């Protein structure tokens, strides 16, 4: 007996059947209003279109209407659709858009680099180097211990204590270096770090007089700054049990971040002080200033 071959799946069916026993495809010509499948098989059941929610789908220009017939009327840029077997209707629904790639966002701007250095750091570093070399040249290798009693007020002789970050870094550096050569001292800068009025180095002496001289100071200064400076007129004076020694600085060249005018030392048998001043080159005026500094720092 001749079998009826299904045009969709190729199954040979009994000629008495009107639908394929395997896939349900209609074997006989359709009558008006009759569906293709009595019960659509699972393998060819329509699949609901995939949701595009959450995807930004770009708008497409209107496509031309597909032509009548099987396998014709494809949209430009899409692969050709194979012709469907006789008796099977082709779906006219547009295929869902494929997932769109995420936007290629530019990376966030990197955090700005380090802030530019504030002005005045070079003079501050030079002051630190001068203080270390000078004290070492004067023989301050005493390994003393700070015993308190030394403090720096907000103002001395009308000059403000510079407590900026740059000044603090400079004084911390000086103290660290001086600790390295055996001098436990406290330092402060008055005026402005870029153009200091004076720098103070104070320490305890345990009753021993500070060694060295103003000439030793100049030896250390010249080896550090290369200024070729020398001590001019010197004055030594005692006031209320405190001995002050001050001398003007005579420099062969100016600038280079160091334009000190005078250097002074004090000794009160308990503390010692070391002052580099740009206020005045007159030794007596420098003694007056150093006496005010001693009174403010030690009391």
Can you put this structure into words, describing what you see?
This protein is α+β, with helices and mostly antiparallel strands and 299 residues long. The strands form three sheets. Strands 5-6-10-9-8-7 form a six-stranded antiparallel sheet, sandwiched between helices. The radius of gyration is 49 Å and the shape is rod-shaped. About 23% of the residues have low confidence.
Topology:
Layout (H helix, E strand, L loop, with lengths): L3 E2 L6 E2 L107 H17 L17 E2 L2 E2 L4 H16 L4 E7 L4 E9 L9 H12 L4 E10 L2 E9 L11 E6 L3 E7 L5 H15 L2
Antiparallel strand pairs: 1-2, 3-4, 5-6, 6-10, 7-8, 8-9, 9-10
Q: How is this structure best summarized?
A:
20% of the residues lie in helices and 19% in strands. With 299 residues, the chain is an alpha+beta fold.
């Amino acid at each position: 007996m001749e079998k009826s071959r299904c045009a969709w799946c190729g199954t040979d069916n009994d000629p008495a059947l009107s639908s394929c026993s395997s896939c349900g495809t209609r074997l006989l010509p359709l009558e008006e209003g009759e569906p293709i499948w009595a019960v659509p098989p699972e393998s060819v059941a329509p699949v609901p279109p995939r949701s595009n929610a959450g995807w930004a789908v770009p708008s497409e220009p209107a496509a031309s209407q597909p032509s009548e017939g099987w396998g014709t009327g494809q949209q430009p840029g899409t692969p050709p659709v194979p012709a469907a077997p006789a008796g099977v209707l082709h779906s006219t629904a547009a295929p869902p858009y494929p997932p769109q790639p995420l936007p290629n966002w530019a990376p966030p701007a990197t955090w700005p680099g380090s802030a530019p250095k504030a002005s005045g750091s070079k003079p501050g570093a030079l002051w630190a180097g001068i203080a270390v070399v000078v004290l070492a040249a004067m023989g301050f290798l005493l390994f003393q211990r700070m015993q308190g009693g030394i403090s720096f007020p907000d103002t001395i002789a009308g000059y403000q204590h510079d407590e900026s970050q740059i000044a603090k870094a400079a004084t911390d550096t000086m103290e660290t270096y001086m600790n390295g050569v055996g001098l436990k001292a406290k330092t402060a800068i008055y005026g402005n770090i870029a153009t200091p009025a004076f720098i103070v180095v104070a320490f305890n002496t345990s009753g021993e007089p500070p060694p060295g001289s103003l000439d030793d100071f100049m030896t250390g200064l010249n080896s550090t700054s290369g200024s070729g400076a020398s001590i001019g007129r010197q004055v030594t004076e005692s006031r209320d049990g405190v001995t002050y020694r001050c001398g003007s600085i005579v420099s062969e060249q100016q600038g280079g971040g160091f334009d000190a005018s005078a250097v002074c030392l004090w000794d009160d048998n308990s503390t010692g002080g070391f002052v580099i001043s740009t206020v005045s080159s007159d030794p007596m005026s420098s003694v007056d200033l150093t006496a005010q500094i001693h009174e403010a720092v030690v009391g």
